[in-house]
Amino acid sequence: MASVTVYGTPLSPAVSRVLACLFEKDVDFKLAPVDMAKGQHKSPDFLKLQPFGQVPAFQDELTTVFESRAICKYICNKYPEKGNQTLMGGRDGGLLAQTSVDQWLEAEGQSFNPPSSALVFQLAFAPMFGFKQDPAAIEQNEAKLANVLDVYDRRLGESKFLAGDDFTLADLAHLPNGHILVSKNEDLFMSRKNVGRWWVEISARPAWKKVVEMQNAPLG
């Protein structure tokens, strides 16, 4: 029986980030649905796992972790011998390789995630839940994201992946929002030669395809 439990839905970008990491690491897990419409994420029991009442929450035996990027780092450090062993820069890469992963993972969280999350809401979730889209917010965040992707394009002209020649957490972290945005406006990514090449490669990884299968599976 799997000792790892992920609380949430694979349709959540943050949850799908953790699932992709678990699949990359070949770590067995159980997915426990959280009905946010019924307020389960604000229940006292759930708040013991995730004090901010957000998904995902993560439990590994008696250890609980929250925030998807921290969970991914935990998985890599807890299970170093399993699955993909280069997600944190590789054991033989030394401090420089690990720092490269950290800085690009930080860039994802600080520079890529804010505009891409705003666009994911406006382009995907707002129509899904019956909210009115905000054209000004879409235009503003597309411009912000374009600037970030221009930086990425220059970087990816120098290396195969963001942190170097190996696929790492720095790349994996972009998959959830990127997947949704490419389905809505692929030119943001594919109009840039190096970003397009990178996106095609990382989104074709078997681990991510398993996540997409979970997202597309019928409910129930």
TrEMBL record:
<dbReference type="GO" id="GO:0004364">
    <property type="term" value="F:glutathione transferase activity"/>
</dbReference>
<feature type="domain" description="GST N-terminal">
    <location>
        <begin position="2"/>
        <end position="83"/>
    </location>
</feature>
<dbReference type="InterPro" id="IPR004045">
    <property type="entry name" value="Glutathione_S-Trfase_N"/>
</dbReference>
<dbReference type="InterPro" id="IPR004046">
    <property type="entry name" value="GST_C"/>
</dbReference>
<dbReference type="GO" id="GO:0043295">
    <property type="term" value="F:glutathione binding"/>
</dbReference>
<dbReference type="InterPro" id="IPR034347">
    <property type="entry name" value="GST_Phi_C"/>
</dbReference>
<feature type="domain" description="GST C-terminal">
    <location>
        <begin position="94"/>
        <end position="219"/>
    </location>
</feature>
<dbReference type="InterPro" id="IPR036249">
    <property type="entry name" value="Thioredoxin-like_sf"/>
</dbReference>
<protein>
    <recommendedName>
        <fullName>glutathione transferase</fullName>
        <ecNumber>2.5.1.18</ecNumber>
    </recommendedName>
</protein>
<dbReference type="InterPro" id="IPR036282">
    <property type="entry name" value="Glutathione-S-Trfase_C_sf"/>
</dbReference>
<dbReference type="InterPro" id="IPR040079">
    <property type="entry name" value="Glutathione_S-Trfase"/>
</dbReference>
<dbReference type="Pfam" id="PF02798">
    <property type="entry name" value="GST_N"/>
</dbReference>
<dbReference type="Pfam" id="PF00043">
    <property type="entry name" value="GST_C"/>
</dbReference>
<dbReference type="GO" id="GO:0005737">
    <property type="term" value="C:cytoplasm"/>
</dbReference>
<dbReference type="GO" id="GO:0006749">
    <property type="term" value="P:glutathione metabolic process"/>
</dbReference>
<comment type="similarity">
    <text>Belongs to the GST superfamily. Phi family.</text>
</comment>
<keyword id="KW-0808">Transferase</keyword>
<dbReference type="InterPro" id="IPR010987">
    <property type="entry name" value="Glutathione-S-Trfase_C-like"/>
</dbReference>
<dbReference type="GO" id="GO:0009635">
    <property type="term" value="P:response to herbicide"/>
</dbReference>
